[in-house]
Amino acid sequence: MYYTDLLRVRNGLFVYAIVIAGVFALSVFTLALNGMLGQWHMQAASDRHLDLDALFAMATFSAMFFTFAMGTGLSCENSGHLPVKWTKPVSRVRAALTTFAFDAAGIIAAVALTFVTIVAIIALVGGASFIRATPDSAEQLARFIVYLLAFYGLIAAAGASLGGRGRAVSWAILGGSLLIGGFDASALPKPWGTIFTLLDYLNPMRYGSYHDSPSKSETIQFGMTSTNLALGVDIAALCLLAAAGLIAALLQWRRLEA
Amino acid sequence: MNDSPAKIAIDRLTKRYGSTLAVDSLTVDVPKGSIFGLLGTNGAGKTTTFKCLLGLARPTSGTVTIDGKPLTPENFERLSYVPERCALYEWMTGAQHLELQRRSFKYYDGRRADELMDLFGLDRRKKIGKYSKGQQTAMALVLAFSIRPDILVLDEPASGLDPVHQRHVLDLIIGEAAGGSTIIFSSHQIGQVERAADRVAIMHKGTLRLTGEVEQLKADVKVVEATFDSEAPQLNGLGTDPRIGYVMRAGKLLRVYVGGDAGEIAKAISAKGPRSLRVLDQNLEDIFLSTVGAAPLNEAEY
Amino acid sequence: MPAVFTVDAHSGVPIYLQLIEQVKRSIALGVLSPGEQLPTVKQLATDLTINPNTVARVYRELERDGVIETSPGRGSFVRSNGGVANASRAAADVAAAALDAAVREAKSIGIAVREARELFHRALERWYPDHEKTEDSRS
Questions:
Q1: Last residue of a domain, one of B205, B235, B258
Q2: Is the ipTM of this complex over 0.95?
Q3: How many angstroms separate the CA atoms of C13 and B281, rounded?
């Protein structure tokens, strides 16, 4: 029953891995050309550090594209495959939950894969010793994972009732997310300003921002806006979004007709 | 009428899509071990009926039961469905589909699957998307038969297949039925239904027009054909006989479609002094055409 | 199984009737001998590509007509005593029905009795070339 999901995610990861490998090869090549391999050649800075959190953020940014591609799992089934998917000795709900589980595992694997590649590149330029963990590194990682799952949930919810058009919806959500963030940041006059601010509360990008530690002087954002809330709140909000999306997708799935 | 419930019981099934009534109060029983043929033109409601039967669509009203109980996921351990249009994953290979079957169903028989793959000449290494339409149908059939089903629901199982493979499909269906499986299938090819089915239901525009045992229908439904010296006469009182389904008059020729004792009707017509009179047999195609092309049986046109 | 049956599924005559007639005919003619085993229901259904229930019905009716006998677990066999006689009688019925239909057809076309008899004699002459001569001299 899960075999289809396994294959689908595996194939997706494979394609993603090839792209990452290509980027890796290109990076190494460029670095080699500029003679930057081996020793750390960049400006000497004794207190320069590379936070793990930043690396997680970079890995997550890349994995966003994987997420958007994978998020259409349900809508792919709905493009003519339901007579096969729904005539198995497994309930619709269980089938959908299995799809969610495998997609989530795939997303996490994509993050891991990207992270490893980034670390490898850094090691090749002699910067491995600069990498350090911060007290909240693990939680930041959790936040980034849930950030991706929140988008996954939204895509699943938006596309569950659609068939082949689900793919387009996926990228539309990305675009919409950027736009909403942008409009919110622009502080438009009422009532538009209020509307976009409210919409931005539902925008995972808002909760995906990362503050440089320990000084918190820099904020790295995925989108245009960020929250100034505690990390725990960000995680909770993203979990809520993810759960809401998946539940909405499940409810649609149950009512769907082949 | 035995006490055990029909294997598949459809009771006043109605399905509406928006303003279109796809199936209108269909009631049909499929006994265990039967090969049940569902006949009808395009849009008659056959596919919709199957979808409601399998839980792929929700009936607007009416019920469908299997062994007297509503459908549950467990039923699918021993229930196979071959839809009209290929629903297989075009990005997966034949071998991967077989593996999917193996992991999903308790009673998957790998050896049987291999035999059938060879029978239909399918290359398991190719992706389904690269199969021809006939090969896709064949693959769906292989998957369906490989789980040793108790119930088979086949929607146009012969579409796209060459005559040799069509014969294989019929043989497989008959073999399954001989082993006790219950099969319900729809087909445009009346000849296939005529051979293999013991029971048939003819649908038209969503309603059930005729149902019964194939052999019984052939034995019962006859055409009384009479020619007269002048214009064929009206039937008058005789026309109200409930056994008469349809009357066709063309100049000197009179044809009366009878569902019942044709001999008596023939005698009654011969009293009107025809030049010639004979009673013709009706094969399933004739029965279908007269049921669907004309008014339904029991609605006369004089 | 030496006997090979064929059925016309497309005919307006029910398959079971066709098959019953063919089996009886085979027995009457000696193609199937008394005590000989018939194919199983599943075998015959698959060979002819017809519904197994139809074959089962044929065997039931043949048994009812005293032409075959079925022992559970062993199969169906041509009845040793009386099987052939019953089959022959049935075969004769088929011939009688065919003659009756032919005469009815002739009458409905408008052929006179004399002409009908002439046609009949001509047919006899054709199919019974030796016997016709002796009987003709009497009529």
A1: B205
A2: no
A3: 6
In CATH, what number is assigned to the domain containing residue B244?
3.30.70
Whether residues B155 and B239 share a domain: the answer is no
Backbone angles phi, psi at B222, to 5 degrees: -130, 165
State mean pLDDT over A22-31: 90
Q: Distance between CA atoms of B47 and B41, rounded to whole angstroms?
A: 11
Residue C122 structure tokens: 């001509």
On average, the pLDDT of chain A sits at: 85
Place of tokens 């065919």: C98
For chain B positions 191-220, those within 8 Å of chain C (CB to CB) are 191, 194-198, 214-216, 218-219
Which chains have at least 3 CB atom pairs separated by less than 8 Å from chain C? B
Q: CA B240 to CA C110: how far, in whole Å? A: 30
> Does residue B110 sit in the same domain as residue B79?
yes
Residue in the structure block whose two tokens are 């419930």? B5
Q: What are the distances in angstroms from CA B298 to CA A16, B5, B200, B260, B291? A: 66, 29, 18, 11, 10
* Domain housing B287: 216-292
Ordered structural domains, chain C, with CATH = 15-85 (1.10.10.10), 98-136 (no CATH)
Q: Which residues of A59-93 are buried (b: 16+ CB within 10 A; e: fewer)?
A: bbbbbbebbbbbbbbbbbbbebbbbbbbbbbbebe
For C22-46, the pLDDT digits (tens) are 998 888 888 888 889 999 998 999 8
Provide the CB-side half-sphere exposure for B291 (13 A, CA).
26
Q: How many domains does chain A have?
A: 1
Do B50 and B71 lie in a common domain? yes
Q: Map residue B13 onto helix, strand or coil.
A: strand
Q: What are phi and psi of C37, to 5 degrees?
A: -85, 140
Chains touching B by CB (3 or more pairs below 8 Å): A, C
Biggest CA–CA distance in chain B, Å, is: 73
User: Residue C109 pLDDT > 80, yes or no?
Assistant: no
Q: Are residues B139 and B231 in the same domain?
A: no
Facing residue for B215 by CB, picked from C10, C16, C41:
C16
CA dist B14 and B9 (Å) reads: 14
- pLDDT above 70 covers what percent of chain B? 95
Q: Which residue has the higher pLDDT, A70 or C133?
A: A70
Q: Which residue, of B156, B184, B205, is where some domain finishes?
A: B205
Does a structural domain hold residue B226? yes
H-state helical runs in C79-139: 83-109, 113-127, 131-136
- Number of structural domains in chain B: 2
Residue C79 confidence class, pLDDT cut points 50, 70, 90: confident
Q: Are residues B234 and B105 in the same domain?
A: no
Q: Quote the domain boundaries for residue A101.
A: 3-255
| Domain match, B64 and B164 both | yes
Return the higher-pLDDT residue of C118 and B239: C118
For an interface test with B, the pick among A5, A76, A84, A253 (most B C-beta atoms closer than 10 Å) comes out as A84
pLDDT tens-digit map of B107-147:
999 999 999 999 999 999 999 999 999 999 999 999 999 99
